[in-house]
Task: inverse folding
């Protein structure tokens, strides 16, 4: 039993080591090769722009349900749905915006990235890159990392906006809160630090999603079954890490006063 | 010239190459024969460091590349090599034409306006018409994929070409065209070729030297003439393609 746990931990540490090596190599090649601008733009579109619809939809409904739950609870305690805007906006901007966007993008685009790179790995296309004068870090990883890191923070902003709109719709049309009050509830209590809090999180999530999904792709072995395994592994790992990181990031950022 | 000295390669606990000694002379065709799973592909992958050997040495023009870690220097070594992959390994996100010209962008300074001419020329060399360039790899048959892949290798004019089963999956006539092409490259461009194969007909036609790999070791290394005359029962069985002989006995014992 102890032996098995030891083996598992050793395997996990080896994977972390290899992923770290991939990041090191990414920085190495980032400054030593021509940047694949065209590839990075394509990836930005595939990862970010194409995830816009599903991110907007999930955020809209999250904002709506937040307003509904908060409104009803506050109503039953105070007899009036006050501060609905504050609760919706705080939850979204500091927490749910970055987390939901991260989860949605890793499920939608992260899985695709792992499956694509993984298929290339098992069909020797990665080896072929080496023999044709480039390598998977330059050609595949760096453009995808840019795709994730550039688009997830922007998507998070949109997610916040759509969530607040969703909350507005429910607050105004279902709970009868005047629209102006909903908005002043937000602007009075929000400041730049709250935005920064969510924004920093979204950057770190994006970097983590890119790293895990590219690493899982490159390290794929064993045909179609291997691709399936690494894709599942990538999605599960990123979603768990988003939630775990979220707690620690909140603790650290709050301690720093952000 | 490539020299392989006492090369070992393990995957985990499994020992695939058990001390290979082999010299690959410049401008000649060296065929590596052996049954499936005997470590042929692993051996040529070690030559361009797609796999890192566990121990031993590989010298390319006197330079030891066995454990070279510097990525830029490794890339500099690899640029002299072409590698024909067993299943072609074409990039399926690109057209045939983009596949063929892919290496030009990274390995040469040829302007992009020249690409169409080179694509046409190299496709013609492997017996394919120009209009194939617009197709996607998924629209090609297995044999065509292999030929496109060879055109992609030829496009960058490598000094050494490693062929991983170039004739497997091709019809006999196309196999012979590929064999002729390998000989042609040797004569006209002095290309060094290392050919993994179990196509005996092709091996005897193209090889200057043949090495027979069995269970991670080289049993016999010599000219095709020596292979025809050998008394080694393993080699004899393989060359004649018989199901009776020591090789099967070994298989059953495992």
Result:
């Amino acid at each position: 039993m102890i032996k098995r746990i030891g083996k598992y931990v050793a395997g996990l540490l080896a994977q972390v080591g290899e992923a770290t090596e991939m990041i090191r190599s990414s920085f190495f090649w980032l400054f030593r090769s021509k940047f694949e601008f065209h590839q990075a733009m394509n990836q930005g579109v595939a990862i970010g722009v194409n995830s816009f619809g599903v991110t907007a939809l999930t955020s809209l409904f999250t904002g709506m349900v937040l307003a509904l739950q908060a409104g009803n609870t506050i109503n039953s305690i105070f007899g009036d749905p006050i501060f609905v805007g504050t609760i919706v906006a705080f939850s979204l901007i500091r927490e749910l915006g970055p987390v939901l966007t991260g989860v949605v993008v890793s499920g939608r685009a992260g899985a695709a990235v792992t499956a694509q790179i993984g298929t290339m790995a098992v069909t020797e296309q990665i080896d072929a890159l080496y023999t044709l004068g480039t390598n998977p870090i330059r050609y595949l990883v760096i453009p995808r990392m840019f795709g994730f890191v550039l688009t997830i923070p922007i998507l998070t902003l949109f997610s916040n906006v759509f969530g607040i709109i969703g909350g507005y719709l429910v607050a105004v049309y279902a709970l009868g809160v005047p629209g102006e009050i909903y908005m002043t509830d937000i602007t009075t209590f929000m400041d730049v630090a709250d935005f920064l809090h969510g924004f920093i999180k979204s950057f770190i999530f994006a970097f983590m999603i890119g790293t895990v999904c590219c690493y899982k792709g490159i390290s794929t072995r064993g045909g179609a079954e291997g691709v399936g395994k690494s894709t599942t592994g990538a999605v599960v790992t990123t979603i768990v890490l988003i939630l775990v990181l979220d707690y620690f990031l909140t603790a650290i950022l709050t301690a720093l006063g952000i | 010239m490539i020299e392989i000295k006492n090369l070992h390669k393990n995957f985990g606990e499994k020992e695939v190459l058990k001390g290979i000694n082999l010299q690959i002379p410049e401008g000649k065709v060296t065929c590596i024969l052996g049954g499936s799973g005997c470590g042929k592909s692993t051996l040529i992958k070690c030559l361009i460091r797609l796999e890192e050997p566990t121990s031993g040495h590989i010298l390319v023009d006197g330079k030891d590349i066995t454990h070279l870690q510097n990525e830029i220097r490794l890339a500099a070594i690899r640029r002299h090599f072409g590698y024909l992959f067993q299943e072609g390994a074409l990039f399926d996100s690109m057209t045939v034409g983009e596949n063929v010209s892919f290496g030009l962008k990274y390995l040469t300074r040829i302007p992009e306006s020249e690409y169409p001419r080179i694509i046409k020329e190299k496709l013609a060399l492997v017996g394919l018409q120009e209009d194939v360039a617009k197709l996607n790899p998924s629209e090609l048959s297995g044999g065509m994929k292999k030929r496109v892949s060879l055109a992609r290798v030829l496009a960058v004019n490598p000094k050494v070409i490693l062929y991983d089963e170039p004739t497997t999956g091709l019809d006999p006539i196309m196999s012979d065209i590929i064999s002729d092409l390998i000989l042609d490259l040797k004569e006209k461009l002095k290309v060094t070729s290392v050919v993994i194969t179990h196509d005996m007909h092709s091996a005897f036609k193209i090889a200057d030297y043949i090495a027979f790999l069995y269970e991670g070791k080289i049993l016999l290394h010599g000219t095709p003439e020596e292979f025809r005359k050998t008394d080694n029962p393993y080699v004899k069985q393989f060359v004649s393609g018989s199901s009776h002989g020591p090789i099967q006995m070994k298989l059953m014992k495992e």
Observations:
- The CA atoms of residues 59 and 163 of chain A lie 5 Å apart.
- Chain A touches chain B at residues 25, 28-29, 32, 116, 120, 123-125, 127-128, 130-135 (CB under 8 Å).
